[in-house]
Amino acid sequence: MSVLRDDIERLQRRYDDGLTADAAGEAERAVLEDFLEALEAGEIRAAEKRNGEWVANGWVKQGILLNFGLRNIRTHTHGGVDYHDVLPLRPTGDLPDRGTRNTPDGTVIRRGAYVGGDAILMSPAFVNIGAHVGDGTLVDSCDTVGSAAQIGENVKLGANTLVGGVLEPVEAAPVVIEDDVSLGAGCRVTSGFVVGEGSVVGENTLLTPRIPVYDLVDEEVLYGELPPERRAFSRFVESSVGDHDLFDGGAYKPAVVATDVEEKTLEATEREDALRDN
């Protein structure tokens, strides 16, 4: 991929020097198409784990942004409906050969998104450019997988879950959901938060670097990450704002409490595998 990286970085310099979508020609568009195809094949990713830490591939995120900056809005048609965007939807003809299902009337996969094998995408759901959805993962109804979000293998995203995207700055790591994670319905994961492998997160939990995670296993307060093999759920803790005269009886702020994953919790999440037999 070194040639593609060189092409993207060269194109970025030209864009910084004033290259516009109107001035971009066939050669420039060919580079952008090659880049999208590499993303969709899983050959490149917006972030990778190196030495135990998730880091952004800045040039990949630059390539994603160039696909907006060097394209004009066009009218596309899908399912007999016109829509207007700089990017078309991702072709999905390759999915059934890898055992992946996507249901009709609302499952939207944008160009530049990777979807692994034996995955399930229920409608309505949206997977944005640069997202990486691993093998065996369930994206349930009303879920959003944001631009550049990295979703591992055998992950369960409960209904109405939001996994935020982080495109800018390019050096910032996106949201990461590691392998074998289960997120309950209504969860929100934003701003580069990392959910560790094998964790089970309760319904309607908000995971963001601005909210503390009280890890009762290692007895520490964390920001921006949930360690592996944790059961996490929302709670409210006392806030210093409660000292204000306007508050009667105290005020509280959201927090996340993390404990060991219990065997009965894992058994409950494993029951959802029955979805794959229906």
Structure notes:
The chain has helices at 2-16, 26-40, 58-69, 263-270, and strands at 47-50, 53-56, 74-78, 81-85, 101-102, 107-109, 114-115, 120-121, 125-127, 132-133, 138-139, 143-145, 150-151, 156-157, 162-163, 176-177, 182-183, 188-189, 194-195, 200-201, 206-207, 213-215, 220-222, 225-226, 230-238, 252-260. The protein has 278 residues and is α/β, with parallel strands linked by helices. The protein folds into 2 domains: 2-74, Tetrahydrodipicolinate-N-succinyltransferase, N-terminal domain (Tetrahydrodipicolinate-N-succinyltransferase, Chain A, domain 1, Orthogonal Bundle), CATH 1.10.166; 94-277, Hexapeptide repeat proteins (UDP N-Acetylglucosamine Acyltransferase, domain 1), CATH 2.160.10.10. A 10-stranded mixed β-sheet has the order 5-8-11-14-17-20-25-26-22-23, with helices on one face. The protein starts with a helix and ends in an 8-residue tail after the last helix. The mean pLDDT is 92.
